[in-house]
What does this fold into?
Amino acid sequence: MSTSLDFIEYVCEQIAGVGQIRYRKMFGEYMVYVNNKPILLVCDDTVFVKLLPCLDEVMRDAEKGIPYKGAKEHYILDIDNASLCKEVIAILEPITAVPKPRKKKQ
It folds into this structure.
C-alpha cells in the first residue's frame, strides 16, 4: 500500500508554519522537505524520521519501524500530534543539509 495524496497533504497541514514545505514523490512514496531540506519520509501512510541522538529525548516514547525493505530503522512520528511534529522539525531542520543538485547526464 502506498501513501495517499490526502495523507501527504494532511502531513503538510499538520506542520504548517515551520518553514517552506513541499513534498516529492520518490520510489512510490514521499519525502517532505522543509526549507528544501529532506526532513520527513512518508511510507504507507506512516511518517518516519531518522534515528538521531538529538531526537532521543523528544522521541523516547515513539515507536520505531522500517519504512521500506532495506532501510534502516526510523522513529515513527505521531503526525496527529502537531506540536510534537513541529518540535521534531525544529530540532532537525538546522542540522539537515540541503541536498546537492544532481549533475545532468550528457
Summary: The first strand starts at residue 21 and ends at 26. The chain has a mean pLDDT of 93. The first helix runs from residue 5 to 14.
